[in-house]
Write a structure and sequence with these properties.
alpha+beta, four-stranded antiparallel sheet, 30% helix, binds benzoic acid
Length: 212
């Protein structure tokens, strides 16, 4: 069964490169990024996991824990981590789930048989501290993901959870944002957006990012 936005991320217990993980307990009060990759010792995956390791401080700033997954066993992950550290000039600082029995892959629908009937696709889930799924993406095996985009979406989610705004196309942290159309009352607009706003159309109102 596929996972949809707003669903509670399925809980599981599985082995990983950092020992046994009970997923919800491991997440605690953090946000989570759970991402699958096709296989250990493959070039694109090596760059993806190395880059994720380099984003450690960016994830920490946002209270996010990362966790990877493939259907390879723990001993393979451990050997591959040495290669990632060496070739990507980093240290893998997050667990890689060893889903050899495909328990998590089945729960999260990570094997797409018409793409490949044994390996996991490049799926990624952003999970909030209430364990709700807030972003799902799936990329083909041949295309490495853009992890700056994942951080950008997390910034947007964390902003829009706390302010009555949404973020426009290609928004980056610090850019103007749009006021949600449901706010129409002038007093409320003044109170929520003291820096003012610009109405391009009645439904398209831009305001400086409120948490800046
Ligand atoms: C890779 O990570 O390089 C890769 C994995 C599976 C198929 C194609 C590329």
């Amino acid at each position: 069964m596929s996972i949809r936005l707003g669903d509670i991320a399925p809980d599981f217990e599985q082995d990983s490169s950092e020992g046994r993980i009970r997923f919800h307990e491991w997440l605690g009060d953090s946000w989570g990024v759970l991402f699958s990759h096709p296989a250990d010792f493959t070039p694109v995956c090596t760059t993806e996991l190395g880059f994720t390791a380099k984003l450690k401080d960016e994830f920490a700033k946002r209270n996010v824990k990362a966790i990877a997954l493939s259907v390879d066993p723990v001993d393979s992950h451990i050997k591959w981590i040495d290669d990632i550290n060496e070739t990507q000039n980093t240290r893998v600082n997050f667990p890689i789930l060893a889903d050899a029995d495909r328990k998590v892959s089945e729960l999260y629908d990570l094997i797409h048989p018409n793409a490949n009937d044994t390996l996991t696709v490049r799926s990624l889930f952003v999970i909030d501290p209430n364990k709700k799924v807030r972003l799902t993406i799936t990329y083909p095996a041949s295309t490495g993901r853009n992890f700056h985009e994942i951080l950008r979406v997390i910034d947007s989610l964390q902003l829009t959870d706390n302010h009555k705004v949404a973020t426009p196309a290609n928004w980056q942290d610090g850019d103007d944002v749009v006021i949600v159309p449901s706010i129409k009352d002038e007093e409320e607009l003044k109170q929520r957006f003291p820096k003012g706003y610009r109405a391009v159309k009645p439904y398209l109102r831009l305001t400086p990012q409120p948490n800046r």
